[in-house]
Amino acid sequence: MDNLFFVLSKLVWGLLSPTSLMVWLLVFVTLLLWLNYVRQAKKLLLLMSIVSFIVMGYPVGDYLIHPLETRFSVPEQMPEPLAGIIMLGGAEQLKLSDSWQAPQVGDGAERILQTAELAQQYPTLPIIVTGGSNLVQMQDLDSEGQVAKKLLSQAGVEPARVIIETQARNTYENFQKIKPLLPKPAGRYILVTSAFHMPRAVGVAKQQHINVIPYPVDYRSDKPNNRYWDFDLSAHLAVLETACHEWLGLVVYYATGKTQSWFPQATVSVDKKD
């Protein structure tokens, strides 16, 4: 079932992402023109033009992603004791790393940098890194986690401290597969992932009974005073795609029982014996 869920999620997103929907609408309009439904085609073209212009000109995606990124905040003070640091993969560019035989990193590099900084602040804590290939056609990429190890090593983390899990393909599998690897199952773990992704990650962690302290990084939205018309289509579209993907993920995870609430929130952490 997990494999079916993974494949279906990739297929559905490939069809329903904002960019894909625009392409499908363009195909539909072309079909209408070929069938001589000119009036209907003109209406759709007008709608597509208006939406495309707004997305190109103004960061509308910020309004969708901002609630996700502000759901959790960086803790002002860490509780004690701590059992380790969990970093969710996603910054590593596995396909490019394989192509060039050198570790490559893309959006989300702050996950690695912040994990390295936390590793310096807490020099005795183990670092648990989870994340395999999320490519349907290239599932065997980086089977030994060398990309994550090298990137963390370059950021100053001793390789001996790093516990690598490389089979997880999505957020649910991240926590499902690291659970048996945790040094102290009942301990508190700092959780490092992108701010927009933190609600879903916390929801899955709670469902798996893993006690995490959210540490969001990699913010994508601007504050209101920094939002203005700048006609940066690629940047605006990237944020919109990310926001839509994450909201859809929250809905699907809740509907399939992978989280206990649709929009997980912070709860008071209860002391547990390790």
TrEMBL record:
It comes from the Bacteria. GO terms for cellular component: plasma membrane. Keywords: Membrane, Transmembrane, Transmembrane helix. CDD domains: YdcF-like. Residues 84-249 form the DUF218 domain. Pfam families: DUF218. Gene3D superfamilies: HUPs. The chain crosses the membrane at residues 12-37, 44-65. One of its GO terms (biological process) is peptidoglycan metabolic process. This is DUF218 domain-containing protein. It comes from Methylophaga aminisulfidivorans MP.
